[in-house]
From TrEMBL:
Reactions performed catalytically: epoxyqueuosine(34) in tRNA + AH2 = queuosine(34) in tRNA + A + H2O
EC number: 1.17.99.6
Keyword line: 4Fe-4S, Cobalamin, Cobalt, Cytoplasm, Iron, Iron-sulfur, Metal-binding, Oxidoreductase, Queuosine biosynthesis, tRNA processing
Cofactor stoichiometry and binding remark: Binds 2 [4Fe-4S] clusters per monomer.
Residues bound to [4Fe-4S] cluster 1: 197, 200, 203, 257
Origin species: Plasticicumulans acidivorans
Cofactor(s) it depends on: [4Fe-4S] cluster; cob(II)alamin
Name used for this protein in its record: Epoxyqueuosine reductase
Amino acid sequence: MPANTLDPAAAAALLARIRDWGRELGFRQIGVAGIELAEAEARLFDWLAQGYHGEMNYMARHGALRARPAELVPGTLRVLSARLDYWPGAARGAWSVLADGQLAYLSRYALGRDYHKVVRRRLQQLAERIAAAIGPFGYRVFTDSAPVMEKPLAAQAGLGWVGKHSNLLARDGSWFFLGEMLIDLPLPVAAPPAAHCGRCRACIDVCPTQAIVAPYVVDARRCISYLTIELHGPIPLEFRRAIGNRVVGCDDCQLVCPWNRFAQPSTEADFLPRHGLDAATLVELFAWDEATYLARSEGMALRRLGYARWKRNLAVALGNAPGTPAVLAALAARRDDADAVVREHVAWALAEQAQRCGRL
């Protein structure tokens, strides 16, 4: 019997085995979703119509394809959604880093190995386990690497609910990566869990730039993660002070979420902090030349920024830092940086420091 014609009992038994194999590979959870995303598609197009995607043109480029898995991979019947936890329990406390203006804050996901590599490799291994057990079947694996609506699919697969900050949220928090396997196997689908945000609006209230413009709606153009990672040009002046010492991304909406009190540290060594980046000083990082940046960001999501955006972000953080002699010297040393965007941000930072000194 071809795998894609499994009877319900055989499909349920196979799913139980897949979940066992997933746990052996380090996945906390594996769920199964159908391929109907009409409501999510409507919300996506409304979000795009508002321009909330900013310069992330790839969000609009594939149109409805993003919400139609069977058009992305013909023959798809189900989507396996997988969760891999990443909270780095050994890292310096996030709030303590944010409170120290001399330190650089990197989003917790960016401290270790690039999650794309880790999750995609594990999903491929899972697919090979399935094929070894049932024979060849149709599949493709993705990890934030194709037009796939991973959060609505994960919610449908029973992994959690979409919180007011737009991240997927479970009763043990939101510090996890998602990956998908589009398959042609008729596995039983999960029942989506109820949402449990209630009246809480902690994530909305804490956002430094008020990017969560309504519950479940994020204007990416205001989001510090977008501004420091996705945006290639100058960071708008109105947001630079609010960025504080956040150099790569922002976790505030997750840090205040009550459900994250129940999060457990990841057991994945790949996600442990590298090169002391959980508590490095801004001055230290701003001194990196390009060769150092490339060497130390190898294999990390940090590499995606590129050296120019790395310097741009650090310049903003140094403009917000305590005006120590070391901070002022670091900025002065890059006053004539080869990159025009970096030069402009350094000039802004020096002006901020001068203005702050004038107010003291």
